[in-house]
Amino acid sequence: MNGLSDLILAFSLCLPRFFVALILIPGFAKQLLGGAVIRNSIAAALALPLLPSVIPHLGEVQSGTMLIGLIAKEAVIGLFIGFISAIPFWAIESAGFVIDNQRGASMASTLNPLSGDQTSPLGILFNHAGTSLFFISGSVLLWLSAFYKTFLLWPMTDFPPQLVFNSVTLVFECFSELMNITWRLAAPAIITMFLSEFGLGLMNRFTPQMNVFFLAMPIKSGIALLVLLLYISLFFDAFLLELADFFLLTEQLEAWLP
Q: CA spacing 20 to 30 A to 179: which of 12, 186, 197, 245?
């Protein structure tokens, strides 16, 4: 009976970090997996290999209050991991939304089934493509490797990591990096659409009888899609590089939770 209680106690310490992190990552969205039960089962399966290393240290948990504090600490670390890991996915979806907004297709905004948020058709396409690349490119293995390393930096029975004073600044830097990635991915299409709009403005200047407004959207849409076809491989290569950079979770979290 004591062995069973130790197993349950160890599992309650292993699960929160995975459980909270998976909630934020689009690739593990409950809408994609078919329900929260499946996602929670994945979190439990990922936590199982940690049980043998946690059970010998359960003697350090001296009270129920300490156990609750450790679980809360694990949830906070999982929140940081999920936040950092989700930035490339949010960026690629935002890039699609920016392109659609620039070509005048913002009226076609719809619900993203993975996140439950309003986005554009290209935003949904890029989000689904990025999620697929996350799994088929092997990036998920890189992410798991970095995730398990966080347990070496901050063992589950250590209480708690101290937040540094510049944590808020680092959060804002992550949002800044989100915007930087978004504009880097969308820049070729945005620039060509701007040039086409400039040309349409000149056309309207010299031929005022032509209604440029009705021509603008199909012309810009055609140009944007043509440019995307030309650099789509570079687009997703850049996305995979961003995934690799952001999955260096240990370096990111060491700055936040020393």
A: 197
